[in-house]
Specification:
This is ATP-binding protein. InterPro entries: P-loop_NTPase, T4SS_component. Keywords: ATP-binding, Nucleotide-binding. GO terms for molecular function: ATP binding. It is a single chain. With about 290 residues, the protein is an alpha+beta fold. It has a domain of about 110 residues. It has twelve helices and seven strands. Strand 6 and strand 7 form a beta hairpin. It is elongated. The termini are far apart.
């Protein structure tokens, strides 16, 4: 019901789901021009509008025999001939039949509410490791998780206090400045809207160049360590200026501070404070 009530969320969910599946198949799909994306998005839309869930097996059958006769003004056969649809269905079937795919069908359901809170409503920590996955599988999982979090977020009442935190240890590749992977649109939505629902984001990276700093300008608190190259410094300065949003920003002072940072010394820039702060981390012990 929520998906139908919120048309923007619904469209985002349909597009993100279709794009995530195609990414898993290794198909670089543009939502506007890719017939694979258009077909799969229409299949999900058709099922969800009828209140039906659609698993991978059901998607394969629907690709072979779509539950509608036309896409736009073209009949299905003209838009995407049966022979080509069979090829797409075979790719998805091979993925489903692969021994490693069975692990995706096991474990806890991907339910944001259950990941963030216990059955009694107590907040809890859920850790999801994707280090063992390939690039395609990582993008699919991250996009699916972010889509679920956005959906959960939109069902929550507005809040001026922190309700939950989403922390991602390395966002390199998920929020690039030029490319548009499935994760990017979802991150943009969260960066713009999450705070209104009491959802905080903590995003970190060791690759400061390959980030969309226009998107990150929505972030209020920056913690920056020692930067290795002038290119890194230039990109970070671009992001800090964007975050200032026309407010007071002393670029020369910020450059001097960044240039003087040593190991385990960080600059904290809070858009709500008049001046940046420099701090040192505590020693940590590993056993």
């Amino acid at each position: 019901e929520q998906r139908r009530a919120d048309s923007d969320l619904y469209r985002e969910r349909v597009q993100a789901t279709a794009l995530g599946i195609l990414t898993l198949l290794g198909i670089d799909a543009d939502p506007l021009t890719s017939r694979e994306h258009v077909l799969i998005a229409n299949i999900f839309d058709n099922a969800w509008q009828q209140g039906q869930d659609l698993d991978v097996a059901g998607l394969i059958r629907a690709i072979q025999k779509p539950p509608f006769e036309s896409v736009g003004v073209l009949d299905v056969e003209s838009f995407f001939p049966a022979k080509d649809r069979t090829g797409l269905a075979m790719q998805l079937n091979n993925l489903l039949a692969a021994p490693g795919f069975a692990a995706w069908m096991q474990g806890e359901p991907l339910d944001a509410g259950r990941l963030l809170f216990t059955d009694t409503g107590k907040p809890r920590v859920s850790v999801m490791s994707i280090a063992h996955l390939g690039d395609r599988e990582r993008m699919f999982f991250v996009s699916t998780l972010l889509s679920e979090i956005v959906s959960w977020m939109r069902t929550q009442p507005g809040s001026t206090s922190l309700r939950a935190i989403l922390y991602m240890d390395e966002i390199f590749g998920y929020l690039p400045p030029i490319a548009n992977p499935p994760s990017k649109t979802l991150f943009l939505t969260l960066l713009k809207q999450a705070r209104a629902f009491g959802l905080g984001l903590v995003l970190s990276t060791q690759n400061p160049v390959d980030l969309d700093y226009k998107a990150l300008s929505n972030i209020g608190t920056w913690m920056i360590g020692r930067l290795q190259t002038e290119r890194d410094k230039a990109r970070v300065m671009e992001g800090l200026e964007g975050a200032a949003a026309g407010g007071a920003f002393d670029r020369a002072q910020m450059e001097r501070i960044l240039a003087g940072l040593g190991k385990r010394i960080f600059l904290m820039h809070n858009v709500h404070e008049d001046h940046p702060a420099v701090f040192t981390t505590r020693w940590t012990l590993s056993y």
